[in-house]
Structure to design on (879 residues):
């Protein structure tokens, strides 16, 4: 760790770059914060100045308010802060998600933030970045996580929806309102259009607008709450945030089949604990194979592992001969394997 | 394997009975007879024998995933299920095989079961390459012998009956006994109209519920027979084609374990099926269950063991008589058939040491009368009593209303005698009706009245003492000096505004005098309420 002192340090407020005097995704109020993406466990309010990638602007303003001091930078363009040069590279996680490349005296650090290698029509695909120090997430850093292709999962969603239509059951999918929901809706809209009516939970409307404002070509859907009374939802697909599952909002649908779209759905126990009829294995994080692939492609001399199975994955990288260490729990992320709702 | 894995997933992802039945029907609809037979085999809880050792699975999984053993173990720790860990840890395959469940058993499991560990590892690696994760998971579950997916025999029976339009009782009957995963078994199961069955075929057992809390208000004791509930092995004794078959409730053939019952059964006429209990028995009482266990554990028994632990079959029902299924007759009628049958086949039935005998029934006018009988269960080493509706048919499985079990485990407390009154009838001259009290905030509060349970000698002693120790009289009621501590048994206690103590006790009776206790040692009301609440919790 000492070797990269000037580039990155772990502090009580979060990851800090002394050479440029800024923090990355800090969880306390700081002077200058660089934000990897607009999920709540990464973008927190209270800092004086924010810097983020261009396409995340609308989402960040939605989360942190229009009045924040926010500077944005297109992917690939550099900005000098103090003695450090900062460049954003697409992370492929959600709209505007960036990996942060920091260069100082010929040494390069890369902070991946959350990322995935799978295709996603709602954001720019991930790119490998050669670096000396890589800080990677490991939300799904166990060898049991292997994502099926997006196409296969969408096929499953459609089949399930059609079965429910046949049985006159409303299909409700719980998915994060920033990222996952748009990804599913985009995939569905690119398939045949006559699948059936789609309604959203009210909490989805803001992020949907932010996506469209940012130029993502998503169709417009309405909130199920605004549907005229007596609306028949029996052939509809509803997308709602996970928190809606236990809420009285669900009462408006008569017979329902409930599903969740998340990487955790790969595990039978999670599906059963959550009382779901179906689980769709669809994640915006890297799976085991892609995590290892990404590390190999960026090929750092030193690897810091955070956010998830840090110990297990760092040890595995050590066993493979890479200098790796876990960043314990200093990095507050998806707590206990439960993704924080975006 | 794909269709069966999908069936598993559908059964696994719902708790609704209708959805499970639908999933089973959809599978039966699409599968061939052999696959249907195997699916039923597994869903009924049967396992592949021998199972494949988990060591082979672990070794192969570590090799396939190309990860260190410790990473495999950490991952398994986190997932918590070996079959699932392995299913998911293996990289996706590109050469899926479309074999069905039975083909997988034949082509992959059978070779696997016959070879050494090292060879098993090789075969497993090949198998897993031919399955997707969901199928691998189910296949691994089959190999390790624990496919549990929340369906029971009743649900499977229902689905098969619905799918085949064959009467549900007939399906239940045909599914009882050892299920063989063969096309023949499947076609016998689905045979229309005909009752043709193998001579060993048992009937599904009728099972009892525990009596509900308010039974004495809702059930009339005169509608029922009571009989001892024995703690042995529930069994069906079948005599057909001059051959004897003994089935346990777990639907296991007990051939050879109880030669004395088998030879006694040779005296039975043909076309008879009896339901009863096998007990280890010496002289006039059963031996403890642990003795009987010595007999169960042996596939063949030695002369010595037969002498040490003699057994008998106590029949309490007859399901088939003169090769006719008589389960739809009323219990009262079946009992008459049973008694006549045993009397006819074993004319010397007065003999107590008889190996095949009939469980005696009795009737009672009131529930308290039966509660008293039940309390004697301990003396005859029974578990309690069974209460069986006289007009009930022999039901399939656990159906509410026909059979009730009333086990012996009442609450008991130590209480203090505080009031006494003269008895009635034969005991009118003696003080035999007692009121007992327990402690509450340092005072003795009346808790229960009990009239019975002491021997005549004890009653005389207590009577004499009462006459000498009366503190005051309230009409016929004598208040006596607190002195006697007695153990009182009762069924239940509830808060009640109609009683001085604030509680109402059901079926209180005296178990024994506690000479060893002083009045300060008697129980406290609060702890009784807690005790009852805890058990009902
Ligand atoms: Zn995120
Ligand atoms: Zn995150």
């Amino acid at each position: 760790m000492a070797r990269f002192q000037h580039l990155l340090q772990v502090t009580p407020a979060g990851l800090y770059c002394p050479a440029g005097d800024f923090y990355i995704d800090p969880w306390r109020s700081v002077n200058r914060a660089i934000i990897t993406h607009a999920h709540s466990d990464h973008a927190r309010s209270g800092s004086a100045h924010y810097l983020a990638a261009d396409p995340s602007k609308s989402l960040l303003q939605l989360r942190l308010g229009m009045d924040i001091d926010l500077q944005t930078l297109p992917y690939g363009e550099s900005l000098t802060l103090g003695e450090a040069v900062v460049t954003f590279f697409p992370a492929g996680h959600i709209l505007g998600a960036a990996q942060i490349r920091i260069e100082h005296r010929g040494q390069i650090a890369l902070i991946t933030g959350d990322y995935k290698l799978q295709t996603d029509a709602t954001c720019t695909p991930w790119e490998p970045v050669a670096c000396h120090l890589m800080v990677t997430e490991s939300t799904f850093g166990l060898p049991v996580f292997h994502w099926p292709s997006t196409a296969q999962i969408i096929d499953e969603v459609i089949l399930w929806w059609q079965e429910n239509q046949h049985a006159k059951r409303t299909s409700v999918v719980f998915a994060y309102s920033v990222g996952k929901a748009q990804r599913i809706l985009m995939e569905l809209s690119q398939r045949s259009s006559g699948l059936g009516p789609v309604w959203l939970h009210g909490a989805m409307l803001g992020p949907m607008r932010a996506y469209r404002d940012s130029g993502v070509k998503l169709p417009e859907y309405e909130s199920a709450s605004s549907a005229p009374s007596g609306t028949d939802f029996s052939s509809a697909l509803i997308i709602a945030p996970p928190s809606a599952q236990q809420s009285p909002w669900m009462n408006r649908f008569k017979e329902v089949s409930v599903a969740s779209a998340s990487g955790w759905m790969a595990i039978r126990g999670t599906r059963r604990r959550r009382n779901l009829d179906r689980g769709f294995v669809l994640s915006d994080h890297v799976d085991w194979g892609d995590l290892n692939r990404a590390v190999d492609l960026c090929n750092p001399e030193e690897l810091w592992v955070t956010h998830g199975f840090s110990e297990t994955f760092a040890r595995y990288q050590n066993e493979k001969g890479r200098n790796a260490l876990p960043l314990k729990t200093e990095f507050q992320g998806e707590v206990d394997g439960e993704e924080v709702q975006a | 394997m794909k269709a069966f894995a999908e069936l598993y997933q559908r059964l696994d992802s719902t708790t609704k009975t209708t959805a499970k039945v639908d999933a089973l029907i959809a599978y039966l609809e699409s599968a061939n007879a052999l696959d249907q037979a195997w699916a039923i085999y597994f869903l009924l809880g049967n396992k592949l024998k021998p199972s494949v050792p988990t060591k082979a699975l672990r070794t192969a999984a570590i090799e396939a995933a190309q990860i260190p053993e410790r990473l495999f173990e950490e991952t398994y720790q986190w997932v918590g299920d070996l079959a699932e860990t392995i299913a998911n840890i293996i990289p996706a395959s590109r050469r899926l095989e479309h074999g069905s469940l039975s083909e997988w058993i034949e082509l992959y499991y059978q070779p696997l079961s016959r070879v050494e560990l090292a060879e098993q590892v090789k075969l497993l690696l090949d198998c897993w390459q031919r399955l997707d994760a969901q199928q691998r998971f189910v296949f691994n579950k089959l190999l390790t012998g624990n496919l549990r997916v929340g369906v029971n025999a009743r649900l499977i029976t229902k689905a098969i009956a619905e799918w085949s339009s064959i009467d549900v009782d007939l399906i239940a009957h045909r599914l009882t006994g050892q299920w063989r995963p063969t096309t023949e078994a499947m076609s016998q199961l689905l045979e229309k109209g005909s009752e043709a069955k193998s001579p060993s075929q048992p009937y599904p057992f009728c099972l009892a519920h525990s009596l509900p809390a308010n039974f004495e208000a809702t059930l009339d004791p005169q509608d029922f027979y009571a009989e001892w509930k024995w703690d042995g092995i529930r069994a069906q004794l079948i005599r057909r084609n001059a051959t004897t078959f003994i089935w346990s409730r777990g639907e296991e053939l007990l051939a050879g374990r109880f030669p004395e019952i088998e030879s006694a059964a040779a005296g039975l006429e043909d076309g008879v099926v009896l339901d009863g209990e096998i007990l280890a028995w010496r002289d006039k009482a059963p031996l403890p269950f642990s003795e009987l266990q010595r007999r169960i554990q042996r596939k063949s028994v030695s002369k010595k063991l037969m002498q040490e632990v003699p057994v008998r079959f106590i029949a309490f029902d007859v399901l088939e008589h003169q090769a006719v299924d008589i389960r739809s007759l009323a219990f009262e009628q079946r009992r008459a058939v049973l008694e006549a049958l045993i009397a006819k086949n074993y004319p010397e039935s007065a003999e107590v040491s008889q190996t095949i005998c009939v469980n005696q029934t009795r009737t009672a006018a009131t529930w308290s009368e039966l509660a008293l009988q039940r309390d004697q269960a301990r003396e005859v080493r029974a578990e309690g009593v069974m209460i069986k509706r006289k007009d009930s048919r022999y039901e399939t499985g656990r159906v509410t209303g026909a059979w009730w079990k009333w086990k012996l485990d009442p609450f008991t407390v130590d209480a203090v005698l505080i009031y006494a009154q003269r008895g009635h009838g034969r005991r009118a001259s003696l003080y035999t009706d007692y009121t007992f009290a327990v402690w509450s905030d340092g005072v003795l509060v009346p808790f229960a009245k009990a009239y019975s349970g002491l021997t005549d000698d004890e009653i005389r002693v207590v009577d004499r003492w009462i006459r000498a120790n009366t503190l005051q009289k309230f009409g016929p009621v004598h208040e006596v000096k607190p002195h006697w501590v007695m153990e009182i048994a009762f069924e239940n206690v509830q808060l009640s505004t109609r009683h001085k103590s604030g509680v109402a006790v059901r079926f209180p009776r005296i178990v024994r005098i506690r000479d060893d206790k002083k009045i300060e040692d008697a129980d406290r009301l609060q702890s009784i309420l807690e005790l009852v609440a805890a058990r009902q919790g």
